[in-house]
Amino acid sequence: MKALPDHIMTSPPTISFELSQSALQARRNAKWNQYDADIIPAFVADMDFAVAAPIQAAIERIVRDGDYGYPLRNGDKADRLVANAFAERMASRFGWELSPDLVVPMADLVQGTYAPILAFSDPGDGVVLQVPNYPPFRDAIATTERQLLPLPMREAGTRYVFDMAELAKLVDKRTRVFILCNPQNPTGRVFARDELLALGQFAIERDLIVVSDEIHSDLTYPGHQHIPFASLGPDIAARTVTINSATKSFNIPGLRCAVVAFGNEALRNRYHKRIPLRLTGQANIVGADATAAAWRECQPWLDAVMAHLLKARNRVVDVLAAEAPGIRLHAPEATYLAWLDCRKLGLSASAFQFFLEKARIGFSAGETFDPDCGQFVRLNFATSMPILDEILDRFITATRQNER
User: Fold this and answer.
1) Under a CB-based contact definition with an 8 Å cutoff, are residues 260 and 242 in contact?
2) How far is CA 222 from the centre of its chain?
3) In angstroms, rounded to a whole number, what is the distance separating the alpha carbons of residues 68 and 65?
4) Whose CA is closest to 44, among 274, 229, 248, 307?
5) Ranges of the chain whose pLDDT falls below 70
6) Is this prediction's pTM over 0.90?
7) Which is nearest to 381 in space by CA: 33, 47, 19, 14?
């Protein structure tokens, strides 16, 4: 019998991580403090779960010892600690061998989006972006005065895809960068090897730099496998900048630690000619230790979380199919985010505003992912089953009242 990949567990360990609504409301984070108490938040990509024990222990060790000086861990500075942990995880989990010397830790993943755009293009140059997509990508293109070239994710059967022929028509001689989001946010696609190879060959032919956001790579469901874009071969790696972080998979977004990884030394050197190392800052001591603990020690916690998320994803798909057939969605292949198409409801307002007012649910507004998606919302289902059931009950009640 063929062994299952590490990311698919037949019987994940029993680990307690779900938090009650009262415990969540007592926190001071953005998710549970943005709205009035009667609104259930289901927007920002933040899981309603307690962090893994090794992460908590790493943080408590720093606090216990008052260890707030410049960090050195077994001879490594904080940045090297994170770079080594990232390289180890990519090799063991995805078979992607890269040198830690090509990994540049920084404080924030959004910095990792802006910096490559600044490094590998000039104002007025074209940047291709799959749409709908994570809103800061659009902001990064606009604020750096680049030209947004939107490549639509279109429905094809049970999933969303992008069209290579459409891409070929979109790109011109001033196009410099393709932003790849894989797994894709908000559609939840995990792109297959043939899709990625086609894109890689196109990037070579058109001399494009690919900025590959792989922050959701650990959150893939059975039947799907994340493939790091830079692992597809040296020619593709030579034009790939990978951005990643432990923040989504291990629920530590407030600790501000991310990495930018370059496909080879020449690409890294080209980047640093425009983006000095000091410009993007460094990971702080807490974020660095927590990130290293996440990538090296917390796979059992993640396996348990993924088992829960699989049940939650299936609950969303099954309940909406039975109770709200007018809502279209494709089961995400990764992430804990569901992209809900509400166009058949015939709403006069945006779907976000409708459900905020009528269901008291705070979704992510579809128009922030694409101005043409005002009748879509993004649901974060990374919460306890009781909270998720309340969200679904409110959602269905509001859709039925709208039909009257």
Assistant:
1) yes
2) 18
3) 9
4) 248
5) 1-14, 74-76
6) yes
7) 47
